[in-house]
Design goal:
Blueprint (H helix, E strand, L loop, with lengths): L10 H17 L3 H25 E2 L2 E2 L1 H12 L7 H7 L3 H4 L17 H4 L13 H24 L3
Antiparallel strand pairs: 1-2
Length: 156
């Protein structure tokens, strides 16, 4: 369980679980499920960045702020909107955990997950090709590395 967990919500741990599942589904050629879960890896990773930035005061997690931001992240503006979440993570505190590849999310031709993914993909069979699923999982792996950096840094 991470320092950012509230009740049963633990975004860093969920990101890791969804990444393992997305990778397994991609290997099993279950492209729809792999692409769908890859989006949740990115969502949970981005929410981890937001929570860390918003709930940390003087190097310590403020539990009141953490609970408030957990609620804020569930609401309309953020919810499952990866682009809004990505914009919220462009802070100096988050920057040290991102690789240069992560900054291209949503704006480069080779990483379209942020713009194309939707939680409603679960309702559409055959919603992702092999190439799309592979791209989404690769993007999820890149974004998840920022969570690994946070773990190594001891902030989670």
């Amino acid at each position: 369980m991470s320092r950012l967990a509230v009740d049963t919500d633990d975004h860093p741990e969920a990101a890791e679980k969804h990444l393992c599942d997305a990778q397994a589904l991609l290997r099993a050629e279950r492209h729809d499920g792999a692409a769908y879960l890859a989006g949740y890896v990115v969502e949970c990773s981005l929410k981890t960045h937001v929570l860390l930035a918003q709930a940390t005061v003087a190097g310590k997690v403020d539990q009141k702020r953490l609970r408030e931001w957990h609620q804020t992240l569930r609401k309309g503006f953020f919810g499952h909107n990866l682009l809004n979440l990505l914009h919220e993570t462009t802070t100096p505190n988050s920057a040290r955990y991102w690789s240069s590849a992560t900054y291209r999310l949503g704006i480069s031709d080779d990483s379209t997950l942020v713009l194309e993914w939707s939680e409603s993909m679960r309702y559409s069979p055959a919603s992702a090709s092999c190439d799309t699923a592979s791209n989404f999982v690769a993007t999820a792996e890149t974004v998840y590395r920022s969570i690994l950096r946070m773990k190594l840094d001891g902030v989670l």
